[in-house]
Amino acid sequence: NVRKPGLAPVKPVLQAHTTAAQKPSPAPGTTGEGQRKRQSKWNMAKTIQVKLPEDDDQLRVINELAKYTWKLGWDFEAVVKEREKDNPLFAFLFDPPDTDLNQFYRWRVFANSQGDSEISWRESEFQIYNNGPLWKPPNCQHIQERKTNEAKEAVKQMM
């Protein structure tokens, strides 16, 4: 991908999920509170439930790669795929898009682009693009508990 000088990269816009049943007769194109309606055709898009990786090493690799992919672009991901093709910690890059680790990685890249952190993010469902699948992020509480437990273990090892 070659960008023209002076043009900023296009970033997707986060669209919160809402349904028509939540409010009676909102203004056209809104939920009645200024939020846009979910833009899926027939409001029946597939839902992707994003799951946290169980392995802490895998979680760290995905978080770091997602952060750099967001900052440096998809060309960076392509270089990593070539260099790490035999590394099992990067196997998720070659997995089908419907696998848990691949979905978690794709979601982390998007979440980074929206300003979310590795321990705190938006938990509401969203669409990355019109008529696309509905993404349901994991609960932040699980990652925060893991980080707290890691910190407690580190303190125990220091003593």
Low-confidence segments, ≥5 residues, pLDDT <50? 17-24
Shape: globular
User: Helical percent range?
Assistant: 25-40%
Write down the secondary-structure element order.
EEHHHEEH
Would you write up a description of this structure?
This protein has 159 residues and is of the alpha+beta class. It is built from 4 helices and 4 strands, in the order ββαααββα. It has helices spanning 56-72, 74-83, 100-113, 140-158, and strands at 15-16, 47-49, 126-127, 134-136. Helix 1 packs across helix 2 and helix 1 (56-72) crosses helix 3 (100-113). The protein is globular, with a radius of gyration of 18 Å.
Please render the helix and strand layout as text.
Elements: E1 15-16, E2 47-49, H1 56-72, H2 74-83, H3 100-113, E3 126-127, E4 134-136, H4 140-158
Parallel strand pairs: 2-4
Antiparallel strand pairs: 1-3, 3-4
Helix pairs in contact: 1-2, 1-3
Q: What are the defining features of this structure?
A:
alpha+beta, 4-stranded mixed beta sheet, 4 helices, about 5% strand, about 160 residues, single chain
Q: How would you summarize this macromolecular structure in one to three sentences?
A:
This protein is an alpha+beta fold and 159 residues long. It has four helices and four strands; from the N terminus they run ββαααββα. The model is unreliable at 17-24 (pLDDT under 50).
